[in-house]
Amino acid sequence: MSRARAVTHPNIALSKYWGKRAGEGNMPAVPSLSVALSGMHTETVCEVLPSLAEDELVLDGGPMAANGRERCAALLDRVRARVDSPARARVVSRNDFPTGAGLASSASGFAALALAAVRAYGLDASIAEVSDLARRSSASAARSLFGGFAELAPPPDAGATFLAATPLAGPDAVPLRVLVCVVTESAKDVPSTAGMNRTRDHSPFYAAWLDEAPRVHAALRAALLAGDLPGVGELAERSALAMHASAIAAGVIYFGAPTLAILSAVRGLRARGIGAWATIDAGPHVKVLVDEADRARVASALHGIPGVLRVIEARPAAAPTVEVTP
Ligand code: 2P0
């Protein structure tokens, strides 16, 4: 038993996961393809302490909220069951970007917790097994166990219980830079799981989304492997708009006024021949995809938009790290 420290990066989906398969196990209904972002980190230390009566969970300097506590304790319980240990753990986690605000903190957070917990409890697990463990807590977290570009496809077998993300390409597959326009420091109103379930239950366009997502995913995958950044950018924007169109029709609206202002600016840049594409997750922030050669002029255009608090400049990240200390 020991102490392990993991550092992971959030990832953003270029082709989006939105919707779960019916049944247990947090299985995605559509394939997704993501890029891990450098310049943003979760650092999680997990320490196994047999003297503790219950898990001690600290996030960003304070005790974790009830919902987060339950999800983290459930992950720790899965690890404990595998090594047959009753020992509780102290987990201290910190994000260097806003938590729970549509900036993929659950992706990097559950990936870091899975990695740190597996090592701290001494569970002999492959990276695919750690990815599967993280996926059960938050499907996008399965992709944060890898650097560069990763995929998470629904399993072909309807009864499957194991599902891990797979690495697809290294960080240099395309000369991509991601300009993350932060428009609020607050947490979002509708958590992703609730938003997905409401979309599935109430959107007249959910079936169209399920139909469209695999096609966009396959085309985006091909563009990435061909090194075609404009193709990747166009398809990523298409995936995000299709996901949000389907969600908005169910009343799940993550856009705010600055979201639309940034989208409009990005389309204005494209009309002037500058390669810039937008993607939006379960929150109002916009991530702008650009060629590294255009990074500086696109960033200066984004800084001037009302409502943009700051712009985080990220590039495709390397793989996460974990170290065990006695
Ligand atoms: C994604 N998102 O592919 C999509 C696009 C947000 C928009 O995965 O219910 O926290 O915990 O499996 O992974 C965010 O949802 O959802 C997400 P759960 P998760 O990145």
Account of the protein in words:
- With 326 residues, the chain is an alpha+beta fold.
- It folds into two domains: 3-169, Ribosomal Protein S5, domain 2, CATH 3.30.230.10; 176-314, Alpha-Beta Plaits (2-Layer Sandwich), CATH 3.30.70.
- It has helices at residues 66-83, 105-120, 127-137, 192-202, 206-225, 229-248, 257-271, 295-303, and strands at residues 3-8, 11-15, 32-36, 42-49, 56-59, 62-63, 88-95, 149-152, 166-169, 176-182, 276-279, 286-291, 310-314, 321-325.
- The strands form three sheets. It has a six-stranded mixed sheet.
- Helix 1 runs parallel beside helix 2, helix 1 runs antiparallel to helix 3 and helix 5 runs antiparallel to helix 6.
- The protein is globular, with a radius of gyration of 19 Å.
- The model has no long low-confidence stretch (mean pLDDT 95).
- The structure holds ligand 2P0.
- Ligand 2P0 binds at residues 13, 16-18, 26, 32, 106-107, 138-140, 192-193, 281-282.
- Main β sheet profile: 6 strands, mixed
Strand content: 15-25%
Number of domains: 2
How far apart, in Å, are the first and last alpha carbons?
8 Å
Low-confidence stretches: none
Shape: globular
CATH class of the largest domain: Alpha Beta
Estimate the helix proportion, in percent.
25-40%
Structure keywords:
37% helix, 14 strands, alpha+beta, six-stranded mixed beta sheet, 22% strand, 8 helices, four-stranded antiparallel beta sheet, Alpha-Beta Plaits, 326 residues, Ribosomal Protein S5, domain 2, binds ligand 2P0
